[in-house]
Amino acid sequence: MKELRRQKLLTQGELAKLVEVEYQTVQRWESGARYPRPVQLRKLCAVLDVTPSQLLAALDETRAEG
Prior knowledge:
The protein is built from 5 helices and no strands. It is an all-alpha fold. It has a single domain (2-65), classed as lambda repressor-like DNA-binding domains (434 Repressor (Amino-terminal Domain), Orthogonal Bundle). Helices cover 73% and strands 0% of the residues. The radius of gyration is 10 Å and the shape is globular.
């Protein structure tokens, strides 16, 4: 997910504001510690301009690396 965020030239804080969460939440998603809730997933997809499948694949890839 970090790469998707960086492609949009967003910081964790900026992404957090856009999806209405704390920046620590974005950190947890990017580290693979947590998955976004469905409502957050929809917002992330809209902001990052990806499908839910693409976003979940990126999150799963992060967990596999962790």
